[in-house]
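FAQ

Q: What does a record look like?
A: Structure on top, sequence underneath. For example:
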């Protein structure tokens, strides 16, 4: 589908050199802090906390917490984006969500039952959705189309760097997870303050509030756009497959992989994450820049999703520490390129510029929702057949995600 004059890229077209040069480092910083919290909590602190509360039922309980939070995050993310659109502002929501993250993480760290952990993590998702939906909308708001690949690379670099910082920080506080939660919340708060201080706000006309039924219809309406719908499906499948494995990485290393003598599972996670981060950072930059120069998005997205699927099969054939190291490197290479270029692709299939935050909030369901839903799915798979079927499921989902980009017509 050809781009129409009402699409997001038809908005203000500032001079790319002047506008994006200072914005890209701020986008990187803001996203790195966000992923530090998501990955530090999801990969290390939350599994440790759940295990501490009830070691015998840790797999099922982690899945329960993840499933409840997934339902909440699925409905709340586009709502947060719609509020940002209605106000015509981004920075206040970024700053407010970032500061509230500290309080939410303090509450989560103090939870001492599975029920309280689930409630606190839902609240944490709520404040982070305000932060994430507004931050995600900055690219279609302020970056011209010809610079979307570079901007998406800056956003994408936040994942490998943020995941490394988050996991290493969380692992350092594995014996004091309450402090770890506070440190990760503080990282988001500082990043929010830095971003809003350095990124000049571009006010947009405030929108009048619409009836609830009309808002719900609008949320569903964007998924009726074929290109957006296929991008949503591809992102959902790939992210679910990725985080179903990464979210259970600590338990995989505890119960499935024979680690070298003296290497603790939390230390092993802290090794695997930087290995993945290095290759992810490389492919993020190379993929984003090349997709700009070649003006090709679908090719990079499809190939990187397929590579992720193949990488997830490595531990199936080599369930060893060496196999996990190779898996981390190859999967990081694939996931980094996918996230960078897919973000650029999505900004080019948004139906309406004035609804950018709301529509990116709908897309964020395909990004944040699977990250939280993954433990629920993974616990069911592990409970039925162990960890090997979990890797196979992740590979199948990633390969289906690669196929999902083929029907997209409005972007090459």
């Amino acid at each position: 589908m050809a781009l129409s004059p009402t699409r997001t890229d038809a908005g203000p077209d500032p001079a790319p050199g002047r506008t994006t040069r200072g914005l890209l480092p701020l986008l990187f910083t803001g996203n790195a802090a966000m992923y530090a919290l998501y990955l530090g909590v999801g990969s290390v602190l939350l599994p440790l906390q759940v295990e501490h509360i009830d070691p015998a039922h840790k797999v099922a309980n982690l899945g329960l917490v993840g499933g409840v939070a997934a339902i909440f995050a699925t409905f709340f993310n586009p709502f947060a984006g719609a509020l940002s659109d209605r106000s015509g502002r981004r920075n206040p929501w970024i700053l407010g969500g970032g500061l509230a993250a500290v309080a939410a993480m303090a509450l989560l760290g103090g939870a001492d039952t599975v029920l309280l952990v689930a409630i606190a993590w839902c609240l944490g998702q709520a404040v982070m959705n305000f932060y994430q939906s507004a931050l995600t909308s900055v690219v279609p708001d302020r970056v011209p189309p010809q610079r979307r690949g570079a901007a998406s690379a800056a956003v994408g670099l936040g994942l490998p760097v943020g995941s490394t910082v988050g996991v290493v920080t969380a692992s350092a506080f594995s014996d004091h997870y309450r402090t770890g939660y506070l440190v990760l919340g503080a990282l988001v708060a500082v990043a929010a303050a830095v971003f809003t201080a350095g990124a000049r706000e571009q006010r947009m006309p405030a929108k009048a509030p619409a009836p609830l039924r009309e808002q719900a219809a609008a949320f569903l309406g964007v998924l009726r756009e074929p290109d957006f719908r296929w991008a949503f499906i591809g992102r959902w499948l790939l992210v679910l497959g990725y985080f179903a494995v990464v979210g259970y990485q600590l338990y995989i290393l505890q119960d499935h992989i024979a680690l070298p003598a003296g290497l603790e599972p939390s230390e092993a996670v802290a090794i695997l994450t930087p290995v993945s981060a290095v290759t992810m950072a490389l492919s993020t930059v190379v993929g984003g820049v090349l997709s700009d120069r070649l003006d090709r998005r679908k090719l990079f997205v499809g190939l990187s999703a397929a590579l992720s699927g193949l990488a997830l099969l490595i531990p199936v054939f080599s369930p060893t520490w060496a196999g996990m190291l190779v898996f981390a490197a190859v999967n990081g290479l694939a996931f980094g390129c996918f996230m960078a270029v897919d973000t650029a692709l999505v900004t080019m299939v948004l139906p309406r510029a004035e609804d950018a935050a709301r529509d990116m909030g709908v897309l964020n369901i395909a990004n944040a929702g699977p990250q939280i839903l993954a433990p629920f799915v993974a616990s069911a798979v592990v409970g039925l057949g162990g960890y090997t079927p979990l890797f196979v499921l992740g590979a199948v989902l990633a390969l289906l995600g690669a196929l999902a980009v083929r029907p997209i017509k409005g972007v090459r």
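Q: Is there anything notable about this one?
A: The domain at 19-201+216-404 is CATH 1.20.1250.20 (Growth Hormone; Chain: A;).
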